[in-house]
Design goal:
Layout: H1 4-29, H2 35-38, H3 40-44, H4 66-69, H5 75-81, H6 84-91, H7 93-125, H8 129-137, H9 159-194, E1 203-207, H10 217-228, E2 233-240, H11 243-268, E3 275-277, E4 287-289, H12 290-314, E5 319-327, H13 330-337, E6 349-352, H14 361-364, H15 371-388, H16 390-399, H17 402-408, H18 413-416, H19 419-437, H20 441-452, H21 457-488, H22 490-493, H23 501-508, H24 513-531, H25 535-547, H26 552-558, H27 566-583, H28 591-611, H29 624-648, H30 660-676, H31 678-681, H32 685-698, H33 704-708, H34 724-735
Antiparallel strand pairs: 1-5, 1-6, 2-5, 3-4
Length: 771
């Protein structure tokens, strides 16, 4: 069990690590040859040019202004200067609201920490319960535990203080959450009302189009919306299964990169041809000329792409029963997206289309009827992943202790018994071991979300974030508290009567705070500081810049600014909310460490959002209801755990007064859900009509159909220079007016020729028919 000295050593190591990271970052960001890595967002916006283009030769690579190195922390106040509205215009609402999660943590826990240290710490400290327990019952404890509720004797009237504080913490948390929910909802509505025109504002995704023997999917979609939305339907784009084609295009891109690399290498030294081996990693196999080999491979795959593209265009089986349908106004799109289209609720299902950047194209090819089965399979798989992961995590953490190391490696016993090394191991190693063990988890959860069939990147990230949160709650929190407490007190269990075991667990649960303190310092201090270095993007940029970059466009593509990573960042934040709310009335010692995390993370990620990250999509803060719900869940969990803890302390008169807290918290959540959540899942028709009216007045001659015509064409069909036939077809379809005849007798009510179809057909490849 970590002592106060162990925590101090761990704090020193992590503070020193963070300080070293900041110094390295300060030096690297000032060098001209790193400018595109640490200021990539400004380059992508075209607002910054490379300092390596001018000046003396040495100054193009190294910053010789030594005065700039003296202000190595100057980036911190600079990150706080940009006003919030300007930051929304610069980075989008998603990024700004993501930052507000850290700010929410500061607003909730700063008053709670002050109140807890002013009231609860003196109440806990002025007892000798743990000292007596150590002498009489051999229960282990440390100085930190004397600041917790464990140090209060059973039946004590002092527990009323913790109950009053629990009510105060709950009321304050709910108040801050409500005000923040209201603020974010207003920000979202204002952002949607003021943002520029986007294709998703006029488009809905229609899924589970029923099969028809007489008409193609494209014709069926057109006729359905001509009949049921005759005054508002504009055009549509059916969904095709181009996954194989996309794989071939991606493979060609990789082969082309290798060809470019060897051509550039040969151009620098053409004294002899470059030879490579075709075996594994180029270590063995037939030796061939690199340029000739990759030229042949690129030509070969180009032919495969051309064949596959024609199959996708001409094969009806490649057309999925889904379509992106666009309307003349936002109002009409809102009506369609938020209403049931037919009496059969399982057909013609409509939802808001993701913005084109947000579409996850591979999953559009998944049949809608298989989604339920896929999600059931993933629910079962996630259950086993979560609960079976407890075993290896417990094993790894058992090795990350003094006893575990001495047992696994007896020859290290002399080293680990050293006083300083003991402090390092107990105060640092458990946290770093757990963090390293979970390093591959986000990738696994994202694969599971993709298998479930979500059609947008934002929904994939939100589902992954939800599962990551559940995993953290079960494996990082519950497993660490319950199993850790049981194993640490095992010797006490074996030497006392069974009716004393619940008491020992009640005393031991708050003792696990020392482990979470070390984890917060490793993950929340040093981990956040390490984020700003961006070592992987830095290394990859210089490798690509050295071996692949030939033009300015290549140099832009070599930049990898990344994004906020909602699927990994938000669950980590929620773990700190959970720890803070659980341990606030139990062990207030943990709260200052959490406050440092929120403050440091807010500054670091604000800097990254301003200068580096390039968000992949914009959902207008659609994730906030999830954030709010998880904080509420953490609050309820903290209340239930406090009730259980006081029950083990025989606070029979005080504990029942906590029963009202979860009930009131759930009632508060239902109120917020009904009052504010509709702004995140529905688009008010009034707002849509106002925006349409303003746009029609400002741009009466807007060619909306031309704007939406190719917005939702699959990316593999956009801008491919190798397929002139497709480009010719595109031009032909845009210029000609083609009528789609009605083939079924039941479609006699369809306008023929329809006013819409007669002007420009929305039902042919790449302009509304089968792609």
């Amino acid at each position: 069990m970590a002592t106060l000295q162990d925590i101090g050593v761990s704090a020193g190591i992590n503070i020193l690590s963070a300080f070293i990271f900041f110094i390295i970052f300060a030096v690297l960001r000032l060098q001209p040859f790193n400018d595109r890595v640490y200021f990539s967002k400004w380059y992508l916006k075209g607002l910054r040019s490379s300092p390596a283009r001018s000046g003396a030769f040495v100054q193009r690579f190294v910053n010789l202004d030594f005065r700039s190195y003296m202000k190595f922390l100057n980036w911190m106040p600079e990150a706080l200067k940009m006003p919030e509205q300007e930051l929304i215009d610069h980075a989008g609402l998603d990024s700004v609201v993501y930052l507000r999660i850290y700010w929410l943590g500061l607003k909730i826990f700063t008053p709670i920490a002050v109140l807890a240290w002013a009231v609860l710490v003196p109440v806990n400290w002025t007892n000798n319960t743990l000292e007596l327990a150590r002498q009489l019952r051999n229960v282990t404890s440390s100085d930190i535990d004397k600041l917790s509720v464990s140090n209060i004797p059973e039946y004590s009237m002092r527990f009323w203080t913790h109950i009053v504080m629990a009510y105060a913490f709950t009321i304050w948390t709910c108040y801050v959450l409500m005000k923040e929910y209201e603020t974010i909802a207003n920000m979202r509505l204002q952002f949607v009302a003021s943002e520029a025109r986007r294709p998703d504002q006029f488009t809905v995704l229609v899924r589970n189009v029923p099969p028809d023997a007489d008409e193609s999917v494209s014709e069926l979609v057109e006729h359905f919306f001509l009949v049921n939305h005759p005054d508002h339907y504009l055009t549509h784009q059916v969904v095709c299964n181009a996954n194989k084609l996309a794989d071939l295009v991606q493979k060609k891109k990789k082969l082309q990169n290798w060809l470019d690399y060897y051509q550039l290498k040969y151009a620098r030294n053409n004294s002899e041809r470059i030879m490579v081996k075709l075996g594994f990693l180029g270590l063995w196999g037939q030796r061939v000329d690199a340029i000739e080999h990759y030229t042949a491979e690129v030509d070969k795959i180009s032919k495969e792409i051309a064949i596959e593209r024609k199959e996708v265009v001409n094969d009806p089986k490649s057309i999925m029963p889904a379509s992106f349908v666009s309307f003349k106004t936002r109002w009409a799109a809102a009506v369609c997206a938020q209403t049931q289209q037919t009496r059969n609720p399982t057909q013609w299902l409509t939802e808001w289309a993701p913005e084109p950047r947000d579409v996850y194209w591979p999953n559009l090819a998944i049949p809608y009827v298989s989604l339920t089965v896929r999600r059931l399979i993933m629910h079962v798989a996630f259950f086993f992943l979560t609960f079976f992961f407890i075993i290896p995590i417990a094993f790894v953490q058992s090795l990350a202790t003094i006893e575990g190391i001495a047992k696994a490696a007896p020859f290290l016993k002399v080293i680990v018994e050293d006083k300083f090394m003991k402090s390092v191991i107990q105060g640092f190693l458990p946290g770093i071991a757990l963090k390293l063990f979970l390093i591959f988890l986000p990738s696994i959860l994202m694969i599971m979300s993709k298998f479930e069939g979500f059609t947008s990147i934002s929904s994939l990230e939100r589902r992954s974030a939800f599962r990551y949160y559940i995993f953290n709650f079960v494996n990082v929190f519950l497993a660490s508290v319950v199993t850790g407490a049981a194993f640490e007190q095992l010797s006490a269990f074996l030497n006392q009567s069974p009716n004393q075991i619940p008491k020992t667990i009640g005393v031991a649960i708050p003792m696990k705070a020392t482990f979470f303190i070390t984890y917060i310092m490793v993950d929340g201090w040093a981990g956040v500081a390490g984020e700003i270095l961006m070592l992987k993007p830095l290394i990859m940029f210089h490798l690509k810049n050295t071996f692949l970059v030939k033009t300015e466009k290549d140099r832009e593509e070599a930049m990898d600014p990344g994004s906020i990573g909602f699927n990994t960042g938000e669950p980590r934040i929620q773990l700190y909310f959970l720890l803070g709310l659980v341990y606030a009335p139990v062990t207030p010692m943990l709260l200052p460490f959490i406050l440092i995390f929120f403050a440091l993370a807010y500054i670091v990620y604000r800097h990254q959002i301003i200068n580096v990250y390039n968000q992949e999509y914009e959902s207008a803060a659609a994730f906030w209801p999830d954030v709010h719900g998880r904080v509420i869940a953490a609050l309820i969990i903290s209340q239930l755990l406090l009730m259980g803890l006081l029950g083990t302390k025989h606070a029979a008169l005080a504990a029942p007064f906590l029963i009202a807290l979860p009930v009131l918290t759930i009632g508060f959540h239902r109120f917020c859900k009904g009052r504010y959540e509709p702004a995140f899942i529905r688009y008010p028709l009034q707002e849509a009509m106002m925006k349409d009216t303003l746009e029609s007045a400002r741009e009466p001659n807007l060619n909306l159909k031309g704007y939406l015509q190719s917005a939702y064409v699959h990316p593999v069909f956009k801008g491919d220079e190798d397929d002139d036939d497709i480009d010719d077809k595109l031009g032909k379809f845009e210029d000609e007016a083609i009528i789609v005849p009605t083939k079924r007798q039941s479609r006699r009510n369809t306008p023929a020729p329809s006013r819409i179809s007669g002007e420009s057909s929305p039902s042919l490849p790449f302009s509304g028919k089968e792609v």
